UniProtKB/TrEMBL annotation:
<keyword id="KW-0378">Hydrolase</keyword>
<dbReference type="InterPro" id="IPR018120">
    <property type="entry name" value="Glyco_hydro_1_AS"/>
</dbReference>
<dbReference type="GO" id="GO:0005829">
    <property type="term" value="C:cytosol"/>
</dbReference>
<comment type="similarity">
    <text>Belongs to the glycosyl hydrolase 1 family.</text>
</comment>
<dbReference type="GO" id="GO:0017042">
    <property type="term" value="F:glycosylceramidase activity"/>
</dbReference>
<protein>
    <submittedName>
        <fullName>Glucosidase, beta, acid 3 (gene/pseudogene)</fullName>
    </submittedName>
</protein>
<dbReference type="Pfam" id="PF00232">
    <property type="entry name" value="Glyco_hydro_1"/>
</dbReference>
<dbReference type="GO" id="GO:0004565">
    <property type="term" value="F:beta-galactosidase activity"/>
</dbReference>
<dbReference type="InterPro" id="IPR001360">
    <property type="entry name" value="Glyco_hydro_1"/>
</dbReference>
<dbReference type="GO" id="GO:0046477">
    <property type="term" value="P:glycosylceramide catabolic process"/>
</dbReference>
<feature type="active site" description="Nucleophile">
    <location>
        <position position="373"/>
    </location>
</feature>
<dbReference type="InterPro" id="IPR033132">
    <property type="entry name" value="GH_1_N_CS"/>
</dbReference>
<dbReference type="GO" id="GO:0005975">
    <property type="term" value="P:carbohydrate metabolic process"/>
</dbReference>
<dbReference type="InterPro" id="IPR017853">
    <property type="entry name" value="GH"/>
</dbReference>
<dbReference type="GO" id="GO:0016020">
    <property type="term" value="C:membrane"/>
</dbReference>
<keyword id="KW-0326">Glycosidase</keyword>
Length: 469
């Protein structure tokens, strides 16, 4: 049912769990800055302490071992390793921390999947223009090479950038993620472009200098909902769905896996809207330079973050203004038959993951796929007996099995999001995704396995047993 070397994992991100925001020489990140500004995060909460994994790593490792994971996805804090974002100053305490984490995982026969960038740019680089600056790609490449050189003898699965779509749109168009910029219709495309440039540079660096000896694999984690027409067979809804897919999944997957450039439907829509609103500058969607490393082919596998599905119909723009919604000209709605899990945007649609996996196989030349995030949120009163989430994991993993067996999708791994309840960005601690509950009112930040964690253990044992027979 699952390949014998299938990766059974769970994931976390540095800012969401580590805490120690000023500990041992760590520099500030844009999320430190963002959270310390009033009105940015639910309840004025922040990740200053979070799960305190910087001091309680051994507790996290116990959780990983209790689940029986074969893989653990973590991210490195760029600012903890390189406080000013450059290799001019290397923070030895940060280096020791991540060396210990990686070594401990391997000692326990758990393979690390390491993300270089999970939303937390060093503030020193933001002060120089951040992801809007063309020079950020070279700085990221330098950071990536430092990490490959330092940890690559032990790390075989790398993610360069997590969810560039979210970084670009929520951080630079909507202003609800760090760095909190609201520059509709302009900054997000520039940020996304520079993230693709940065990813490509890092991939080429790995390919040229480290791959032969280290024998690892590198990709970027692309988030996407499954999208389908609101009215089956309706030409307008089908066209709107194609546009929505181009502006989300296609924005980052098309250049890497198909043509080396953005989807034509995306570029033509942006150009048309620019003309409509009298924008006289050069295209708001930048072009890739032939003088820089090629984008096409810079992924050794497809890393997919999937949470939910949407129905699509024309419209959904943001009035007479220049913005990404008006460029896309498509509205996304929830099917009322889909149950909502916790937060309003997250409908429970396990079969949507299977459909998306099949779409990726057919559209992007049947790549190897790791599902690098997938999860179910809980809000309100704590429920450690989280029956609905337990059923979600069983249903979802069954859909993944069908994608492998019946659709022929080359799925290599599944990472639940997340190992622990943690700091969930603008929602603070009000939203819980963990397989383990963390009691943030307890000074010891006690970790307790949810029922869903227990069910995940059973599923891993069941499928690993089937793999060996």
């Amino acid at each position: 049912m699952f390949p014998c070397d299938f990766a059974w994992g769970a994931g976390t991100a540095a800012y969401q769990i580590e805490g120690g925001w000023q500990a041992d020489g760590k520099g500030p990140s844009i999320w430190d800055t963002f959270c310390h500004e009033k009105g940015r995060v639910f309840g004025e909460q922040n990740g200053d302490v979070a799960c305190n994994s910087y001091e309680l790593w051994e507790k996290d490792l116990e959780c990983i071992q209790q689940l029986g994971l074969t893989h653990y996805r973590l991210s490195l804090s760029w600012a903890r390793l390189l406080p000013d974002g450059t290799t001019r100053h290397i923070n030895q305490k940060g280096l020791q921390y991540y060396n210990k984490v990686i070594d401990d995982l391997l000692t326990c026969n758990v393979s690390p999947m390491v993300t270089l960038y999970h939303f937390d740019l060093p503030q020193a680089l933001q002060d120089q223009g951040g992801w809007k600056s063309p020079g950020i790609a070279t700085l990221f490449d330098s950071y990536a090479k430092f990490c490959f050189q330092t940890f690559g003898d032990r790390v075989k699965l790398w993610i360069t950038i997590n969810e560039p779509y979210v970084c670009a749109k929520l951080g630079h168009e909507d202003g609800i993620h760090a760095p909190g910029l609201k520059e509709p219709g302009l900054a997000a495309y520039l940020v996304g472009h520079n993230m693709l440039r940065a990813h490509a540079m890092a991939w080429h660096s790995y390919n040229s200098f480290y791959r032969t000896e280290q024998k690892g694999a590198v990709s970027l984690a692309i988030n996407s909902d499954w999208l389908e027409p609101s009215r089956a067979g309706c030409a307008e809804d089908i066209a709107a769905t194609e546009r929505s897919l181009a502006f989300t999944l296609g924005w980052f997957a098309w250049p890497v896996f198909v043509t080396g450039d953005y989807p034509e439907i995306m570029r033509s829509a942006i150009d048309a809207q620019s003309k409509k609103f009298g924008y006289s500058g050069s295209s708001r969607l930048p072009s890739f330079s032939k003088d820089e490393p090629a984008i096409l082919g810079t992924a050794d596998f497809f890393a997919l973050n999937y949470y939910t599905s949407r129905k699509v119909e024309p419209g959904g723009g943001c009035g007479e203004t220049l913005c990404m919604k008006s460029d896309r000209d498509a509205g996304e709605v929830l099917d009322p038959s889909w149950p909502i899990c916790g937060v309003s945007w997250l409908a429970v649609v396990p079969h949507g993951l299977r459909k998306l996996l099949k779409y990726i196989k057919d559209t992007f030349n049947n790549p190897a796929v790791y599902i690098t995030e997938n999860g179910f949120s809980q809000v309100g009163p704590l429920q450690t007996e989280d029956v609905q989430r337990s059923e979600f994991y069983k249903d979802t993993i069954f859909e993944v099995a069908k994608a492998i067996q019946e659709d022929g999708v080359n799925v290599r791994g599944y990472f639940a999001w997340s190992l622990l309840d943690n700091f969930e960005w603008a929602d603070g601690f009000s939203v819980r995704f963990g397989l383990f509950h963390v009691d943030f009112a307890d000074a010891k930040l006690r970790r307790t396995m949810y029922l869903s964690g227990q069910e995940y253990v059973k599923m891993i044992l069941k499928y690993k047993s089937a793999q060996s027979t």
